[in-house]
Design a protein that fits this description.
By secondary structure, the chain is mainly α. It has 13 helices and two strands. The chain has a two-stranded antiparallel sheet.
Length: 305
């Protein structure tokens, strides 16, 4: 099992994916530094300045680092755990040695999860390193960012567990890796790209709330999971403009006109969206992923190879 874990782990770290992840992380770290430098030139109180920085960092972590990069890395690895081995016939060679199917499955899944976590930590490390090099960040703000990073890494581990469960399951039912990868990549684009746009349109038309579409809104679901971890950072005291951005990309807030004067002034106030319970959604996804891992184990134990 230990050998399979190590082989699965090391197989994930090829030159091209590692380079791409570092470049993307560095690019967004540079963008974050640019935003930081511009905001530092504005006349803002420390509280407002730190909140703006943390809000921007939170969106980058949710949408880009964990939402797109780590999702694709974990998807690519998990969907190839068994489908690729079966297709190439190498799994027969593995099982011909002194190893049980249980150890084979457990070793490969553990290696995939561990490798994805290393990618997660590395991505945030490169991001912060580039940010520090080009921003001249103050000590107090840097401490806030490091604290938030630790929280985002824990959130990322939860996401990796969920993605890994689905990817592993797909790897046991497809004969080749390609269709499983395409499904996972399409799902990432759907959750973090298409759904937010469609939701805005459906909300304006009045259909989103009318038909309770938040029940099927995967972007909102992951936003709720993310929000559970945001609370441990502290009160971000989101501004109205930032609430609007969070509403578009996470649906964590809903706009409300508190009185007629506000409505006539065409100004919106935002309140937390409590359509679904965040903890319930989080545990549901974790339990669902655990079930998929269990089904994958059972499938591979009975699979005719």
């Amino acid at each position: 099992m230990k050998v399979l874990l190590c082989k699965t782990f090391t197989k994930m770290f090829k030159v091209i994916p590692v380079t791409v992840v570092w470049l993307i992380s560095g690019a967004f770290g540079l963008l974050f530094a640019y935003i930081y430098n511009n905001l530092s030139e504005s006349i803002l109180t420390y509280a407002r300045f730190s909140n703006n920085i943390m809000n921007i960092y939170s969106l980058m972590a949710f949408m880009i680092i964990v939402g797109i990069m780590i999702w694709i890395i974990c998807s690519n690895s998990s969907t190839g755990l068994f489908a690729q081995e079966i297709h190439e016939g190498t799994i027969r060679l593995l099982l011909s040695k002194e190893i049980t199917r249980m150890h084979l499955v457990a070793g490969k899944i553990s290696g995939m999860i561990l490798g994805s976590v290393v990618y997660l930590i590395t991505s945030f490390s490169v991001f912060i390193l580039v940010f520090c090099l080009f921003s001249g960040v103050e000590k107090d703000i840097l401490l806030l960012i490091i604290k938030a990073t630790l929280v985002f890494i824990v959130y990322g581990m939860v996401v990796i567990f969920i993605i890994g469960g689905l990817g592993t399951f797909l790897s046991t039912i497809f004969k080749k890796k390609v269709p499983a990868v395409l499904i996972m990549v399409a799902l990432a684009g759907l959750i973090f790209g298409i759904i937010p746009i469609v939701r805005v349109i459906l909300t304006q038309l009045g259909y989103y709330n009318q038909f309770n579409l938040y029940i099927f809104d995967l972007n909102y679901h992951f936003g709720l999971i993310f929000n559970n971890f945001l609370g441990s950072i502290g009160d971000l005291s989101l501004s109205q403009s930032t609430n609007a951005i969070f509403t578009i990309f996470t649906n964590l807030y809903i706009s409300e006109a508190v009185d007629i004067d506000v409505a006539l002034a065409n100004v919106c106030y935002y309140d937390i969206n409590t359509s679904l319970n965040g903890l319930l959604v989080t545990f549901s996804y974790i339990i669902g992923a655990a079930v998929l891992y269990g089904v994958s184990f059972k499938t591979m134990l009975k699979k005719d190879i």
